[in-house]
Amino acid sequence: MSTIPDERLRLLFTCCHPALAIEARIALTLRMVGGLTTPEIARAFLVSVPTMGARLTRAKKKIASAGIPYRVPTDAELPDRLGGVLAVLYLVFTEGYSATSGDAAIRRSLCDEAIRLTRVLVGRLPDEPDAAALLALMLIQHSRRDARSDAAGRLVLLPDQDRAAWHRAEIDEGVRLLRRAAAPGRLTPYLLQAAIASEHAVSPTAAATDWPEIARLYAELERVTGSPVVRLNRAVAVAEAEGPAAGLRLLAGLDDDLAGYHLLPATRADLLRRLGDLNGARDAYQEALGLAGNAADRQFLTDRLTEISAGP
Questions:
Q1: Global pTM value
Q2: Helical H runs in 125-185?
Q3: How far are the Cα atoms of 106, 144, 146, 293, 308 from residue 156, in angstroms, in the given order?
Q4: Alpha helices of 67-167 — where are they, by DSSP H?
């Protein structure tokens, strides 16, 4: 018998059946319970929409052909499903934090629901460090929500955000959870991401940010995950710590892995702009603009193009 106190969380555990491959169970749960569309899930997995559609279809067929029962798991079965549930919650939050499409950069309702469910999970499994680390990450990241766009809905980058508008109580709670989840020699993706978010959150000013430490944490995260998105983010941190040329070198070889991901050419454009290569920056910004699906992202890229076209 299950003692999961929340109905939606029970559904997540029910759908994350270990008989399915981990990526299939995460994708199917995102679609059936998380409410994400196939394009949104495809973006989360960095694959094309037809590829993700085919994966979802295969997962449904396997459930039917294998006679996988649709039932709430017992408490003894929860550990085998926890990794999938955490991944679903993380990806729902990620879609809310940086929306794939639409007019707004943030889908607050998705962030709020992911945080609510993760908080329930932490209450049910208080000794699971990854659950605590994931909640820490969500709280710290979402604490900046009111500063991430201006009154007109335009994106405000982290260095330019009004830190007085950040929700300090959420940051403090996130830092406490991070300390609770940390253990010597134990470095998991959620823990490392929460540590990176914490470095930004506790810095009193943008200028005081410890970019070498953030770059070090990203290097460790890349070692643990092998993720091309992590390498992209590491390049940004290295650019801040060592200069844009060093960051640009880290982008080499990512085009195949991140094809169609607008943040790759957008990052390349910013680094080229800082190096004074305005023609290269313009081309990269235009590439990013053609790939961006969110109105706020497109407006930001359009503004950048206007700035560099206007010249000094």
A1: 0.92
A2: 129-142, 168-181
A3: 12, 11, 10, 18, 18
A4: 78-97, 108-124, 129-142
Q: What does the block give as tokens for 133? A: 């680390």
Q: Is the dihedral of CA 207, 177, 129, 114 positive or negative?
A: negative
**Tokens 């009004």, residue?**
162
CA 245 to chain centre: 25
Question: Measured over all CA atoms, what is the biggest interatomic distance in the chain, rounded to whole angstroms?
Answer: 67
74, pLDDT greater than 60: yes
* Confidence check: pLDDT of 1 > 60: no
Closest CA to 121 of 80, 92, 89: 89
* Statement: residue 254 has pLDDT above 80: yes
DSSP annotation of 206: S
- Between CA 177 and CA 17 the distance in angstroms is 28
Dist. CA 42–CA 99, nearest whole Å: 13
